[in-house]
Amino acid sequence: MKNQKPLILITNDDGVSAPGIRALIDTMKTIGEVIVVAPDKPQSAMGHAITINNTLYLNKISKENDTVTEYSCSGTPVDCVKLAVNEILKRKPDLCVSGINHGSNSSINVIYSGTMSAAVEAGIEGIPAIGFSLLDYDWNADFQQIQSFVKKIALETLEKKLPKGVVLNVNFPKLKEKDIKGIKICRQAKALWVEKFDKRKTPFGKDYYWLSGEFVNQDKGEDTDEWALENGYISVVPVQFDLTAHHTIQELNTWNLNG
Amino acid sequence: MKNQKPLILITNDDGVSAPGIRALIDTMKTIGEVIVVAPDKPQSAMGHAITINNTLYLNKISKENDTVTEYSCSGTPVDCVKLAVNEILKRKPDLCVSGINHGSNSSINVIYSGTMSAAVEAGIEGIPAIGFSLLDYDWNADFQQIQSFVKKIALETLEKKLPKGVVLNVNFPKLKEKDIKGIKICRQAKALWVEKFDKRKTPFGKDYYWLSGEFVNQDKGEDTDEWALENGYISVVPVQFDLTAHHTIQELNTWNLNG
């Protein structure tokens, strides 16, 4: 067992053919045995959605002799993790990595992100998990610049094990490898999207909307992921799925709810 | 201003015609001015999904003389909140209530729930928010038994204001009003779904899956939402959207990431 290669599950939300997941597969192949289960189409901003009112399809897309076994799935990123763990993998993976996302999942974006929700789902199932995102929405983003960092963070996670109930949200600045200053453990910056809906008319005269908006960072702290990324660092935020605001329970117990 | 009725935004994930939201509207009408913006179809288990690769439609479904203004929306519960705040409401609402969900959103369900994600989105936008759920999946569930509690919690939230960065996740046991023992402030129980995919064949011979599973409570604590509900109490969990596991930052700083 000691010399067994680690089993690594890979997924994403940009779809199985995205360059970001291809780069992640290339890196993880150098560390362990890799199984890919990823959406058959883009599933960005799906949050922690799961498919309960519809059927799910799973297609093996790799060939028999390929070094990596790959499946595409008709569902969401979270569906992919659930199907992988329950229907495909013979043992619990040693690591689940999600991404590399084309675009930022820093700060409040963690909550909308399919990439991060897949990692969180793995975490809920007791699998050490990391979501990786590059601050470049371009389909042809240069993932090569960050490959060595991705490998270092994955290896360190395999060795040190994550604290219980925690997964990692890793975001990379859009910089050349030599210009990246290092890796910082951060907290999630307090921020939000200020929406500006783009209202249009269909050719038939009916109003419709496109969601668009502007990211507003309300947080001046120098210990946040936004600060790290703006200053040339890779941000690593430990993310938990116990959403309880424990520090507010005492205050809420003073409310008059049982009078 | 002092005598102005509170403005209350109502949404849900079961769709605008669900009995649960109808019950919530009836109760909130007795407290304030009500605007409804809810999905035009069921959107359960959508988590914090938003619609970014598709268009959104908004239809006013109430008549001019109705006491409550209602819109249906083609998007997710989170889309509904974003559209309401940015395109419909003239001022920031004093309260956003989501539900009443047909079925539990206790424990880890909070993370998959469209009902709770709508409340969380309102919270991110600085609006006091509550998600309500009844532990009865039946379309004809008896919401009348919990109306007085819904009103009490909403009034107390309007009066006391929520702690910053927190929304409330309220779950009701399926009991008669007289048998409900009271309201308990709780933490989210540690639990997960153990999946059992139901594998079938299409009429054309292709495999497909239905996601199903069993809820497993791993938490024996008597301060959890699961304990409260099993023992006849209404559970109220303060939920935060800063997902940072602050208590693990020190440990992660001992990792060898910049060597």
From TrEMBL, chains A, B:
Presence of the UniProt keyword Hydrolase in the record: yes
Cofactor binding annotation: Binds 1 divalent metal cation per subunit.
SUPFAM superfamilies the UniProt entry points to: SurE-like
EC number: 3.1.3.5
Top EC class for this record: hydrolase
Ranges annotated as spanning the membrane: none
Reactions catalysed according to its record: a ribonucleoside 5'-phosphate + H2O = a ribonucleoside + phosphate
Top-level division of the source organism's lineage: Bacteria
Keywords associated with the record: Cytoplasm, Hydrolase, Metal-binding, Nucleotide-binding
UniProt domain Survival protein SurE-like phosphatase/nucleotidase: residue ranges: 8-193
Annotated localization: Cytoplasm
Molecular functions (GO terms): 5'-nucleotidase activity; metal ion binding; nucleotide binding
Pfam family membership, one: SurE
Chain residues that bind a divalent metal cation: D13, D14, S44, N101
One GO CC term on file: cytoplasm
Cofactor dependence: a divalent metal cation; Mg(2+)
Function: Nucleotidase that shows phosphatase activity on nucleoside 5'-monophosphates.
HAMAP family attached to this UniProt entry: SurE
Family stated for the protein in its record: Belongs to the SurE nucleotidase family.
Record-linked PANTHER family: 5'-NUCLEOTIDASE SURE (PTHR30457), PHOSPHATASE, PUTATIVE (AFU_ORTHOLOGUE AFUA_4G01070)-RELATED (PTHR30457:SF0)
Listed name of the protein: 5'-nucleotidase SurE
